[in-house]
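I hope you will forgive my troubling you with a question about protein structure. Could you please explain, in whatever detail you think fit, how the structure tokens follow from the sequence? Thank you for your consideration; the sequence and its tokens are set out here.
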Amino acid sequence: MSTNVLGPRLRELLGFWPLATFGAFATVTVLLVLPVIGIVGMSFAGKTDGAGLVDNYATFFTERFYYQTLINSFVVASLATLGAVLVGVPAAYFVTRWDIWGRGFVRAAVVLTFVSPPFIGSYSWVILFGRSGLISGWAAQLGIDLPSIYGAQGIVFVFVLQFFPFVFLLVSSGLRSIDQSVEDAARNLGSSEFRSFGTVIAPLLIPSITTGALLVFVASFSEFGTPIILGERFRVLPVLVYSEFVNEFGGRPAFAATLSVLLLAMTATALVVQRAVAARHSHGAQTIRPLEMQEQPLIKRAVASTFVLTLTGFALLPIANIVVSSFLKANGPILLAQATLDNYRHVGRTLWTPLSNTLLFTTAATLLCAVVGTAVGYIVVRRRSALTGLLDMVIMFSYAVPGIVLGVGLVVVFNEPPLILTGTATILVLAYFVRRLPFSVRSSVAMLQQISRDTEDASINLGAGPARTFALVTVPLIATAILSGALLTWSNTIRELSATLILQSGPTVTMSVEIFNEVVNANFGLAAAYGTILIALTFLPLAVLFWVMGRREEVLV
């Protein structure tokens, strides 16, 4: 009897989906959990033999040079988050609820801003508002002393313009999920539009606002490119991690691991706090009639249009400047008002290696994400259990792991036998894969939640196995979602910088690293040419996503 019972049970445990679940767990454990554990373990390694376990932490919290970077990171991330909420929420409301001028342009501008590599925009602001900047120089001739783009104020300013699309997109989506009857009830009781928003609509938007704020905070706190370009003496934690890890005198991996743990602790704490706030204010109301567009008096419409168009214009300014600068003659950091193709000619001689590496690594990571993410999405939706819930949570945790932290963790794990992968193409592809896997998972989950499993059950009842049913029935049903996730993965992977800087070597240089090197060397013309090519490669998949597939821009988040 026991053998008869054990046989079916064993076959069930060795079935397609149990093995797929185990494989998914093994993958995220090796590529995400073990690197995190590795950097935590290394952070407790003393600076010298016999030193205390907490020696690195003691050094950090007792020397102002080090702990000030944590304070600086928290300050600029908090101010950037506040600024992004203050401009993103009203912008989303005006575009979604009011018939302002240029609504289509604003939506396209937000998408462009969202996918533009942050560090490219940072050096663009230097070209415009630096000490020898185009606009700052013109203003100086008029006797106008503009605020410096360098230091904390410059970093916060750029962060707000780079990351407010997180808030804009999520609040826009949240507004579309609110039923018109909610506002009608408030207005019928005598509330004005402003009071109705503050007392009725805004509380329903708290999950959207807090999620957007979380994404801005995590992105700002972990961003490496902007602070290293604009920070000068204002040092933040991600820059310190990088400098300690790749120090020209050999670096201090143990201390860099300590800094990475502190960086991860802050971003993970932000994730936990946001989830608690969102869960407390979540509402399960069903939307039958979404909030309607409202006609406004000319003055209000003009003011709102001016605010939104000015905001998006400033956000697009760096991208426009990059494209224009790529066609200007450059003398190091100085751009001359002379049109030329010299930048592209020079870039063309060295373009093949970074371009081919970027396309190869991005494509490989995207395909991995599409395959694994689709399977994980099916497991999460169709095979719900405490175990699959844990799998979903661990994969989503990668949102809270900054790229530079993941890079350090992968070096810790894969820099010794039996697997020495540091500096290889494999480690870069795996890093991109585990960082962007949530895009494919969430895209598949969203589609599967809307599809009945009757067709899949019928296929299994007719004798098709789980694997065959998944490949021939489920995958075609969610093909659109798979493609959407793949396009988003591509657009976000191709501009990855922080993890790449830690993991790459000379033969595996990418476009992002090449741009970073040219910016550091003050070759702005060449950086602009590389940047223009990268922006085009980033935006093309999104053009397919929105204009060919008809998807809304909210799919970005």
The chain has a mean pLDDT of 84. The first strand starts at residue 328 and ends at 331. The beta strands are 328-331, 334-339, 415-416, 419-420. Residues 64-97 form the longest helix (34 residues).
